[in-house]
Amino acid sequence: MRCGFCLPVCPTFKETGIEAESPRGRISLMKAAVDGIMEPGISFEDQMNHCLGCRACEPACPADVKYGQLIEQARDAVETHTKQHRWWIRGVRKMVFKELFPSQQKMRLLGSGMHFYKKSGLQSVVRKTGVVGLFSKQLSDMEKILPDASGKGITQLLGTFIPAKGEKIATVGMFRGCLMDVMFTQTNIKTVKLLSEAGFDVVIPETQNCCGALHAHSGESDQAKMLAKNNIRAFQEAGVDFIVSNAGGCGAILVEYDHLLHDEPEWKEAADWFAKRVKDISTILVEKGRPLQFADSESATTSTRVTYQDSCHLRNVMKGSNPSRQLLKEVGNVTFVEMKDAGSCCGSAGIYNVTQPEMANQILEGKMVNVNATEASYLVTSNPGCLLQMKLGIDKHGQKGKMEAVHIADFLYDRVVKH
Ligand code: SF4
Ligand code: SF4
């Protein structure tokens, strides 16, 4: 089928109107490469890299084309084809994909470095000199919204077991994430405390590692599989009933570990066990948790306007866009305002806003028109990448002080009645 129903929902097609920038166009290019009509070389690679991987094309497709699986295979093919030509890129990739991300110890070192950069005064010096801007405008913009990183992750601060408040409903395993755990440590802590308030014993297996999403999306499927197997072992040993993620980007690959390991039959049972237990924080709170009680702020005379930006992966892969909205509507003194096209990608898409800054900024500008129209005080998201991208948009549009981008776990925990 080449119906084109996927075209109007594709952010890169919407921006360019070019067939090759659409899901249908990219699938045609993949087919041409498979049929030997074109080489999976640089121009093919560029076209594949322009894709955000947001997967908005999947729910729109009447033929149930698994575009996410196709793009991962295409990127794997590009990596294999171009490996011998790019020694310096290989060096950087090896350091990032094989040494930094798989090691939580190294991620904590990175967190310590970022913490020092912000707190030592070095950040002010760097900003005054404008040295980052000499390298890249995008890096300079991103530097402005660096979160408060930490050299300590959640298990260093809370331990590996947090009991349920009141009667226990189930035992959940917390997927802490690699970057999430050092760049948004407080969000992880509040996620665990929300789970405890809702009646869950929370286990945080120390031996878990990065989910492998960046690897799988960048043509490093062998490394992604290795990380997946390690996570499956860690959570099976912990004997949990559910596995909770608070980052849509991570959750979407965790829920597809069965597909990632589909060509390794000896892993089938374990991968199925894992994949069917994965839930986003909002989904498990709504579906399985004891209802949270939210405080009505007695001092508040007016209601707070709140809007929500979907995480593409939470919406299109985990099918979890409703529970977050439901929870936000339950919070006292909140008026929930639905944003136009809230389900459309914000341009963050993992590291897309670093690797494809032009398109990412174009998409962000379109998104900000809809964000600003909500006149909300809080812009809530469920993924760290979206959160940073929204902070960047708010900063660029001079909305700082009027509007704040927050993760849903932070927003809910700050307003829940604690027992
Ligand atoms: S994943 Fe997103 S950007 Fe890529 S083709 Fe599908 S809709 Fe377009
Ligand atoms: S991917 Fe699906 S929606 Fe898009 S052209 Fe093909 S069949 Fe139609």
TrEMBL record:
Superkingdom in the source lineage: Bacteria
EC assignment: 1.1.99.14
Pfam families reported in the protein's UniProt record: CCG (PF02754), Fer4_8 (PF13183)
Names of required cofactors: [4Fe-4S] cluster
4Fe-4S ferredoxin-type domain span: 40-73
Leader sequence residues: none
Entry's cofactor comment: Binds 2 [4Fe-4S] clusters.
The reaction(s) this protein catalyses: (R)-lactate + A = pyruvate + AH2; glycolate + A = glyoxylate + AH2
InterPro entries recorded: 4Fe4S_Fe-S-bd, 4Fe4S_Fe_S_CS, Cys_rich_dom, Glc_ox_4Fe-4S, Helical_ferredxn
GO MF, any single term: metal ion binding
Keywords: 4Fe-4S, Electron transport, Iron, Iron-sulfur, Metal-binding, Repeat, Transport
Function in brief: Component of a complex that catalyzes the oxidation of glycolate to glyoxylate.
Protein name, as recorded: Glycolate oxidase iron-sulfur subunit
Originating species: Paenibacillus silvestris
